[in-house]
Amino acid sequence: MGVVKTSTSQRTTSLCTRILGSQRDAASTIFNLPDYRVTDAVDLPDGGRRVVIESIESPGCPSCGVLATKVHSRRSQQVRDVPVAGAAVVVWAKRRWFCLEPACARRTFAETTEQIPRYARSTTRLRDQVVSAVIRSGRAASEVARAHGVSWWLVQAALSAAGVVLPDVDDVRVRRLGGR
């Protein structure tokens, strides 16, 4: 019988699986971005942290829907996210995939997810958090932007997108008038 060598990450993942019944490693569990796993985390000289993430699922082709199995290329994309255990620079190891369906006109496509939609430079959970901060606290968009370390434009764009899904004022019944 030969000796089987395993890496530290494989041993950690198998330990997590045995103890917690989870396939996620500890860093991915702490980072807690659904459908992503942490592939690298580095402490920076300025005291910050750089976290590299990648999506777990293979996407389907946007044109034909066939699941991708072959990676065309990779590129790094920096995205803004809520601070998890301190400020962090989040880098998404974004993949470009081949569509192997012969009848499909699209040959390659970039992956998108619910957490980081197409063309987005910030996560959905960050956008949801700034919208919630403005609505619940009643603070100005500029104040929320400063508190979250993002631009006013990001907060305003998130509020505008959230305004589209809010119900029309005339359709909402008044339950109570006054402050008591």
Quaternary class: single chain
Overall mean pLDDT: 80
Overall, the morphology is: globular
User: Biggest β-sheet: count, sense, barrel?
Assistant: 5 strands, mixed
The rounded Rg comes to 21 Å
Tell me what portion of residues adopts beta-strand conformation. Answer: 15-25%
N→C terminal distance: 78 Å
Q: What is the β-strand count?
A: 5
What are the segments in which pLDDT stays under 50 over at least 5 consecutive residues? 1-22
SS field, number of helical segments: 5
The helix-and-strand class reads alpha+beta
Helix content: 25-40%
In short:
This protein has 180 residues and is of the alpha+beta class. Helices cover 31% and strands 21% of the residues.
